[in-house]
Amino acid sequence: MDPGLQQALTGVAPSRDTAMHVPAGSVASHLGTTSRGYFYFTTTALALCLVFAVATIMMLVVQKTDSIPNPPGKFPLKGGNCSEDISCVMERSPFRKSWAYLQVSKHINKSKLSWNKDGVVRGVIYQDGNLVIQFPGWYVIICQLQFLVKCPEHSVDLKLELLINQDVKKQTLVTVCESGAQTKNIYQNLSQFLLEYLQVNTTISVKVDKFQYVDTNTFPLENVLSIFLYSSS
C-alpha cells in the first residue's frame, strides 16, 4: 500500500486503545441506575399484592361472619315492654334450676307487697308475699316498682325495701312533690338489686312506704319481683 494512503487511513480510524477505552465510572453509574429502577418497581408491586391479599382476606372473614346463623337456643329479644324481655331472658337462661318472676298484685292494702300467683315460679315457693328458697346458693334479686303521686300540699317520701328473713338488706328512698304543687302528677320509678347467698327456707319480701302510690294501672307490667340462682357453689 502506498505509504501516504496508509498514513491517512491510520489518522482517520480510531486506535484499538481509543475504541475500547470507556470510563469505568459511567458504566457503574448506568448499571446502578438500572438496578435501583428494578428494585423500586419490584417493591411497589409486592406492596400492592400485599394490600390486595389483606383486603381479600378481610372480605372473606366478614362474609363468613355474616353467614353464621344464630346458635341453637339463642333467640333475639322481643321488642316491647321491659317485662316481656326479662321474662324471655329468664325462660332461656342457663339459671333455670331456681328462679321466679312475679308481678305485683292489683289490690295493695299494706306495706308488705303481695304478688300475682299466676307468675312464673320454678324451684321456689311463693307464700303470703314471700318467696321461699328451696336450693342454697348465690341469688340475684331484682325489684322494680312504678309510682304515681298526685302531689298534696307537702312533700312525699317513697321508699322501697328488700327484706331477707324480715331483715332489710337494701333500700331506696326518694322525695317527690317538694314544691307542693297540688295538681302536679309525678311518675317515679324505684328499683333495687341484690346479690346474696341464701340458705334453704330463706324468705324474700318487699315493703313499700306509701304503698297507696304504687301505680298498678298505668304500668301494670313494670311492677315486678324477680330472682334467680346465679351459682350453687
From TrEMBL:
SMART domains linked to this entry: TNF
Cellular component terms (Gene Ontology): extracellular space; membrane
GO BP term (any one): CD8-positive, alpha-beta T cell differentiation
UniProt GO molecular function: cytokine activity; tumor necrosis factor receptor binding
Subcellular location: Membrane
Residue span, THD domain: 98-225
Keywords from the UniProt entry: Cytokine, Disulfide bond, Glycoprotein, Membrane, Signal-anchor, Transmembrane, Transmembrane helix
Membrane topology: Single-pass type II membrane protein
Record-annotated membrane-spanning stretches: 38-62
Top-level lineage group: Eukaryota
Annotated Pfam families: TNF
Main location: membrane
Binding partners and assembly: Homotrimer.
Family (UniProt): Belongs to the tumor necrosis factor family.
Function (record text): Cytokine that binds to TNFRSF8/CD30. Induces proliferation of T-cells.
Name of protein: Tumor necrosis factor ligand superfamily member 8
Source organism per UniProt: Mustela putorius furo (European domestic ferret)
Organismal lineage: Eukaryota, Metazoa, Chordata, Craniata, Vertebrata
